[in-house]
Design a protein that fits this description.
Structural class of chain B: mainly alpha
Oligomer: heterodimer
Order of helices and strands of chain A: HEEHEEHEEHE
CATH topology of the largest domain in chain A: Alpha-Beta Plaits
Structural class of chain A: alpha+beta
Shape of chain B: globular
Number of strands of chain B: 2
Number of helices of chain B: 12
Distance between the termini of chain A: 71 Å
Radius of gyration of chain B: 21 Å
Strand content of chain B: under 5%
């Protein structure tokens, strides 16, 4: 009898405590990200979609050396180089990438291409919206990869500063 | 035929239609309110895509329910299978009939076809109102049990069996807990029970004299309506969806509605029996205020039901039975006995 009463009292207290917790949470702001309406916060080192960068004067950084294609573990990069001429100058070097395709269905976002690149032309930026309606659309051509690539749906987290250290990985 | 009788019948029919419609509307509103509140309890937003603050979600859900394909599986007992959702829904609504929402009948200020129309603030003011509520409450079990049985599915059957066991056992402490209220009020008629509570500025509520009975009644109503933490009939993690496993589209919608309407009606009954119904300060002078009081009380009870659902895990079935037979029932009997003694000493 006494045991039952004790059980009832402690049980009611526990339930009251649980209800207190939920009531406290009722008046807090939800933590849900309203994603399509509001930008998503990503970390500075988050590896997303590739972007082909340019120099400040608008010339492409890529020189068509295809080192990225060689470094790629899944062989998802295809580069076809062409000679720069004085009339049609795309990059500062001798050659530029005439064709630069990345198969996003194969890419594993390891970032080896960015590491291999001698001119820092290909980098992995933060875009993660990679859904397509057809499989062929998942092969990103050079036009789509080149800057500028606008990403209004992404916000970089400011609470963690990312500093590039040249010695990383070279020990 | 007596013309007064005809007008009464017509007025009653209109009242019944209005009440049924309002209850269905209440069900629709509750589905969204509950999801919204549950969301906020768990730091989510809840539905907020359709309409402002997700208010139009009701209509979207309704369209979804209505336009889904009506699938009747081959292996079911067809007649009973189709009948069961209605048998769950109708008793849930019926119990509302005896709840008074204001003190006195309201006489329309104008005559319709030469007849004076009197609108009662209740559908039926029967002198065994409390018994009627308990009786109708037990009828609700049929829909769920027959639905579970006719589905010819082990999950449905188990869900149905659990429901019948649960509802039947929780009716006992519920009825015994009401004994205290009946003894103090000296009547089974709901209008008289409310009239008793309309003293002391309309604040002589039975919850003050019968707090234990109120808690027992509250717990039992949760079990009767199949609400968390007593939603054993539809434990989705062990019984798929319990009795509703083989039901889809609007047939499921009716079961769904039965649960919510049960919840709303039980809140009305609880407010009437324990929280003074329409009574409150100046409710006698301003009848409209009484309706507002009643709705506020009902809203509060509904909120606590959702709150409990957000806070408590589901009870295991054997614990559910143990809790009822070994704790609630003795407690309610003790409460009734003590009330009888005290009331006897005071009144005689």
């Amino acid at each position: 009898m006494l045991k039952e009463v004790k059980e009832a009292v402690s049980g009611s207290r526990e339930i009251a405590r649980a209800m207190g917790v939920t009531l406290k949470y009722l008046f807090k702001k939800p933590i849900t990200h309203q994603y399509p309406d509001e930008p998503v916060e990503v970390y500075p080192r988050f590896r997303g979609r590739h972007v082909l960068q340019r120099y400040e004067n608008g010339l492409e950084r890529c020189i068509g050396c295809a080192l990225c294609a060689a470094a790629c573990p899944t062989h998802c990069i295809y580069v076809e180089a062409a000679e720069n001429t004085d009339d049609d100058r795309r990059s500062p070097g001798e050659r530029y990438a005439k064709v630069y395709d990345i198969n996003m269905l194969r890419c594993i976002f390891c970032g080896y291409c960015a590491e291999a690149c001698p001119t820092e032309a290909i980098v992995l930026k933060h875009d993660f919206q990679l859904a397509e309606y057809t499989r062929w659309d998942a092969i990103y051509t050079k036009e789509r990869l080149l800057e500028p690539h606008d990403t209004p749906h992404i916000k970089l987290r400011s609470d963690e500063k990312f500093e590039l250290k040249e010695t990383w990985g070279n020990k | 035929m007596d013309p007064q009788l005809v007008t009464d019948l017509v007025v009653h029919t209109i009242l019944i239609v209005i009440v049924a419609t309002l209850l269905m509307g209440g069900f629709a509103a509750m589905t969204v309110v509950e999801r919204k509140l549950l969301g906020r309890f768990t730091l989510r937003y809840g539905p907020n895509r359709v309409g402002k603050f997700g208010t139009l979600q009701v209509i979207a859900d309704m369209f979804k329910m209505f336009f889904k394909e009506e699938v009747v599986p081959d292996h079911v007992d067809r007649a009973i299978y189709l009948m069961a959702p209605g048998m769950a829904l109708v008793p849930a609504m019926l119990a509302f009939a005896v709840v008074p929402i204001a003190q006195a009948p309201f006489v329309l200020p104008f005559e319709v076809f030469g007849y004076t129309i009197t609108v009662n603030p209740w559908i039926a003011d029967i002198n065994v109102g409390v018994l009627y509520i308990l009786a109708i409450g037990s009828l609700g079990t049929y829909g769920v049990v027959l639905g579970g049985w006719s589905s010819n599915n082990k999950y449905s059957l188990l869900g149905g069996l659990r429901t019948s066991a649960q509802m039947l056992s929780y009716e006992l402490p519920m009825g015994v807990a009401l004994l205290g209220v009946i003894m103090l009020a000296g009547s089974l008629q709901l209008t008289q029970i409310v009239d008793f509570q309309n003293a002391w500025l309309g604040l002589r509520w039975f919850i003050l004299f019968q707090p234990i009975a109120f808690i027992i009644f509250y717990i039992c109503s949760l079990a009767e309506a199949g609400r968390a933490p007593f939603d054993l009939p539809e434990t989705e993690n062990e019984l798929i969806a319990g009795f509703a496993t083989e039901y889809g589209a609007m047939k499921f919608g009716l079961f769904f509605g039965a649960e919510y309407i049960h919840m709303i009606v039980v809140s009305f009954i609880m407010a009437t029996l324990f929280l003074g119904g329409w009574s409150g300060p100046f409710a006698t002078q301003v009848p409209l205020l009484g309706i507002v009081y009643l709705l506020l009380k009902v809203g509060f009870i509904l909120f606590t039901m959702i709150w409990v659902r957000a806070s408590t895990p589901r009870v295991r079935f054997d614990k559910l039975m143990k809790f009822n037979w070994k704790f609630l029932l003795p407690l309610s009997i003790a409460n009734a006995a003590v009330t009888a003694l005290v009331a006897g000493v005071i009144f005689f």
